[in-house]
Amino acid sequence: MKKLFLIAGLLVLLSSCSKSVLTTYPPDVSGTWTLAEASRSNGLGWQYINSNLDGGLFDFYRSGAATYDDGHNLMRGSWKIYTRNSGYYDQYGQYYNQLHHVFEVNVYDGYTGASVDMYFDQVIRSGNLLIATHYDGYYVYRYVFQRY
After folding, report:
1. Could you give the CA distance from residue 84 to residue 44 in angstroms, rounded to a whole number?
2. I want to staple 40 with a disulfide (CB 3.0 to 4.6 A). Which of 5, 72, 105, 139 is the partner?
């Protein structure tokens, strides 16, 4: 009888342990994207901002290479998505502390010296939209890219 209680107790103990598991693969961002919206929030609502990336095209290649062309500069570089277990704000401004996908883009034009370096705490893909957020200590920034 003691063995039965010991086994039952172990099963209850093991079943009460929880672990956060990210069950989705990183979003497929390969292809051509344009920035459809950039906004920020301090918790009191979203305000549209000028990102200086409007009208340009991002090309993300499966190899991890990236380009950004705004008609004046052709920047080349890389992108990557990786999984991290930390705090982040989602596209609605809600805070979570769990596994999520981080998105980085770094492109540079050696001729003009122009560059775009973006780090997003979280990224998701929803149909033809790529939604990425970043918290800078005061504002949550939300960038919405649309497949071109």
Report:
1. 27
2. 139
Q: What CA–CA distance (Å, rounded) separates 19 from 22? A: 10
Structure confidence by residue, pLDDT tens digits, 7-41? 444 343 334 443 444 557 888 999 999 999 999 99
What CA–CA distance (Å, rounded) separates 84 from 20?
Answer: 12
4 sits in which H/E element = helix 2-16
| pLDDT tens digits for range 91-106 | 999 999 999 999 999 9
Residue 49 Cα distances to 2, 34, 100, 135, angstroms:
66, 16, 25, 15
Query: Cα-Cα-Cα-Cα dihedral of 34, 35, 36, 39, to 10°?
Result: 170
Going by the DSSP 8-state scheme, the letter that residue 25 receives in this structure is P
